[in-house]
Predict the structure.
Amino acid sequence: MIQTVKGTRDLLPDVMPLWLRVETVAREAFRRYGFKEIRTPILEQTELFARGVGEATDIVHKEMYAFTDRNGDQLCLRPENTASVVRAYNQHKLYNDKTAGENTKLYYIGPMFRRERQQAGRYRQFYQIGAEVMGASDDPAIEAEVIEMLDWMLKELGINDTTLLINSVGDAALRGAYLETLRALLAPQLDKMCSDCHHRYETNALRVFDCKIESCQTVIATLPTITDSLDEASRTHFEQFKAHLDARGIAYRVNPRMVRGLDYYTRTAFEIVGASGLGAQNTVVGGGRYDGLSELIGGVPTKGFGFAFGLDRMVMALPDAEAERLRASDAPDVFIVFLGDAARQHSFRLAQQLRRAGLSVVLDFDERKMKKAMAQANKVQARYALIVGDNEIAQGTYGLKNLATSEQEMLGVEAITQRISESAKP
Ligand code: ATP
Ligand code: MG
């Protein structure tokens, strides 16, 4: 049998209610905060990410599915979506859309591709939900508002055990001087560091902070942080950002060693980590400010702030009770049990009526004895069984049995619809 490609997986129906719940809550959050959806292609020019995300990043350097097309074009499966959204913003001149207001606020949901080492919470095709605020404004109030939206999402999903980590990585200009210091300090210790860190040292020394290898972390712990050498404007920005979070009652922790995996971040960077239910890969959300990304890919000068969360990990972070409730809510409303051939024919019409009234109805085509049919109703986890026989047809009322309580009553079609609709789903 041919199987899925390594690092990819089928999402089977039993987990889909969980995925849909996260998507629904996210869409509701985006509606409340004024974000509009955008869908960009999965296939993009490799150059978009080489320039946008940065050659020195793990994503571009090691993880991207890039190939030469039959006509020689350099293409790839998108490893992330911020660069694509910024490309679309420029390509379609979305900055001219006056209905968008002061900032263009976009969100996306879709698969991303990275050739990662396979482990729990890390896939080669994974899913992200993300949002981007693009425009001329770099007010830190926007950053706090976006984080407030994420905070609402997490609470709405019942995920209450995460921590918000924040940092400022300063401006590109400031980074130049800091990087020189960093390289000078790293040079004598390189022999203790991994081959990836050697590459990072050559291309963008700041990236070493991203290394997850313990021997490298020992070296990293001795390095001065970029936060210590922030310029005045970035420092003020960071202080204001924190004040906006405080004013919104959002708790956070400053982590001066968090630089995030992408080259394009400026000033504010953040992560949301630590939901129980996740293993070692416990970063759920990553985001930050990316002033200058637009210019990097040839677009108009634009300020930007955004985030992406891993849908796979968000689903894993759902509390067990919530996951259980969601699975149960996917069960059919009614299973029709018919007795006899006339009842079978009649049941087809009945099912049609109930479905048109909005109920989810299951009907098997094989006739079964009463006991077997009821067992089947329980197997498919229907909330009600509806019993249809010759007498019921004659009277126009049917036996509606609540399978959780075993209560049974005789009701007509309208009353059935009403009864089931008003009895709250689990
Ligand atoms: P990490 O440090 O875990 O590799 P990252 O910095 O590469 O994360 P981002 O590019 O910021 O992650 O992506 C944002 C979020 O997308 C992550 O916090 C995570 O939840 C999710 N994510 C990233 N890569 C994967 C993957 N391979 N499989 C599943 N989820 C992922
Ligand atoms: Mg990564």
